[in-house]
Amino acid sequence: MLLNLAATAGASETTHLLLVLAAMLALAKVLGDLCERVGQAAVIGELLAGVMLGPSVFALVDPHQSVIQAFSEIGVVILLFQIGLETDLRKMLKVGPAAFAVAMVGVFVPFSLGYFSARALGLPPLADLVLGATLTATSVGITARVLSDLGRLQDPESQVVLGAAVIDDVIGLIILAVVSDVVAGGSVTLGGVVRNTLTAFGFIVAAVMLGGRLVPPLVRLIARHGKPASLPVMALTLAFTIAVLADQLGSAMIIGAFTAGLLFAPTPQAHQIEEGVVRMGYFFVPLFFVNVGALVDVRAFADPRVLLVGGILIACAVVGKVVAGWAPFWWKGRKLVIGVGMIPRGEVGLIFATAGVTKGVLDDKLFAACAMMVMATTFLAPILLKQLLTKRENAPRQDEPGSVELVSRV
Question: Which end of the chain, N or C, is less surrounded by CB atoms within 10 Å?
Fold first, then answer.
C-alpha cells in the first residue's frame, strides 16, 4: 500500500511538471509569434509569458523549483553553445580591443553610477556595493538571441557586443566574488583578486588553445565512423562538460558553453551540429526566457520606494551601458548599436541581486527594485535593437561592402 501511495505521489508530481512545461512552451510560442507579427523579437513574448505564468498573475510557474531551474539552465547553456557555433572567432579577435574597451567602461561606469546613487539615497551599508555590482554584467543570452533572430550575428557591431558581454560576465563574476567576501566580513586582497581574474580569463584561453587541437580530429573521426545523429550528441556532451568545468573552476557555465561553441565553429560539420542543437533548443531555450520572466513579481512595484530606487537603477543601467558603446573611440561602427546591445541584465542581474538577499544585504524591497531594473533593461534592449538594426536593412553591410540588401529572419 505504501508503494502504491508513493507511486501515486510520484505520478502526481510528474503530471504537474508536464502541465507546467506544457503551459510554459505553449504560452511562450503564442506570445513569441504575436510579438514577431507586430515587428518585435520573439524573446519579448517569451519573457511576457514568464511574467504571466509566474507569481505576478497565474502563479503556475515557480521559478525557484529545482526542476524548472535545471531545465532553464540547460536552455541557456544550449543557447550559448549555439551562439558560439555561429560566431567566427577570427572576426571576434579582430574587434578584440574594441570589445575589451566596451567591457571595461561597461563595468566601471554602471558600477560607479549604482554605487554613488545608492549612497545618495542613504541606503544601508554594503547595499551600495551590491547594487553597483548588480549593474555590471550584461546578459549575453538576451542580446545574442535577438541578434540571432535578426540574422545579424556576423555584423562587426554584434561581434563587439558578444565579445564585450563575455568579458563583462567574467569581470562581473570576479566582482561578485569580491563583494561576497566583503559582505561576509572577509578582507579583499590583491592576491585574491588576481587569482580570481587569472582563473576566469585563463579558462577561456586554455580551453580555446587545447580544444582547438583536440576537437577537429574528434569531429572527423565521428563524422567518418558514426551515425549522422552522433555528431550533435557528441558536441552537446562536450559542451555540457566544458560548461560544468568552467563552473567548477570559478568561471560560469554560460562562458564554458560559449567557448565550446567556438571550438566547433571552424569545423566543416558545424552546420550539421548546429541543426541538431537547434532542435533541442526549441524545447529548452524558451524555458530559460520564461523562467527569467517568472522571477519578476510586478506586484512589488506598487511600493513608491521600490519605484524610486528601481527608476534610478534603470537610468544608471541604461546610461552606463550606452556610454560604453563609445569607449572604442578609434573604431568606426554604429556605437549606439553596441551600447544598446549591452543594456540587458537578464538572469545575470538577478543572480547578483539574489546573492545580496541571501547575504542579508538587500531586503525584499531593494530586491524588487533590482528586479524592476532587470525586467526593464531585458524588455527594452530587444525593442531598441530591432529598431536600430532593421532601420538600415537595405543599406550595405559594413563587413560585406558588396551587399545591397540584408533580409532579416524576423
Answer: N
Structural domain count, the chain: 1
- Provide the CATH number for the domain around residue 374: 1.20.1530.20
Kindly tell me the sign of the dihedral angle through the C-alpha atoms of 26, 30, 33, 35. negative
End-to-end CA distance of the chain: 55
pLDDT at 391: 63
With H, G, I as helix, E, B as strand and everything else as coil, classify residue 162. Answer: helix
Q: What is the pLDDT of residue 371?
A: 81
Beta carbons of 351 and 76 less than 8 angstroms apart:
no
Task: Evaluate whether residue 22 is within a structural domain.
Answer: no
Q: What is the pLDDT of residue 401?
A: 38
Q: Within 13 Å of residue 145, how many CA atoms lie on the same side as its CB?
A: 31
Note down the domain range covering 274: 66-390
**Which residues does 53 contact at the CB level (< 8 Å), separation at least 6?**
23, 24, 27, 60, 61, 290, 293, 294
Q: What is the mean pLDDT of the chain?
A: 81
Residue 287 phi, psi (nearest 5): -65, -35
Q: Is residue 408 part of a domain?
A: no
Q: What is the pLDDT of residue 74?
A: 92
Neighbours of 237 (CB within 10 A): 11
Q: C-alpha angle with apex 84: 78 to 86, nearest 5 degrees?
A: 110
Q: Is residue 362 part of a domain?
A: yes
108 CB-contact burial (10 Å; exposed 0-12 / middle 13-18 / buried 19+): middle
User: CA–CA separation, 136 vs 138, rounded Å?
Assistant: 7
DSSP 299: G
92 occurs within a structural domain: yes
Tell which residue, 157, 172, 138, 163, has the closest CA to residue 84: 163
Per-residue model confidence as pLDDT tens digits over 183-238: 666 565 666 667 767 776 778 788 888 888 888 898 888 888 878 778 888 899 99
Tell me the H-state helices in 295-401. 304-324, 335-341, 346-358, 364-390
pLDDT beneath 50, residues of the chain = 1-3, 5-8, 394, 396-410
Cβ-based neighbours of 407, under 8 Å, separated by 6 or more:
151, 393
DSSP 11-65: HHHHHHHHHHHHHHHHHHHHHHHHHHHTTS-HHHHHHHHHHHHSTTTT----TT-
Length of the chain: 410
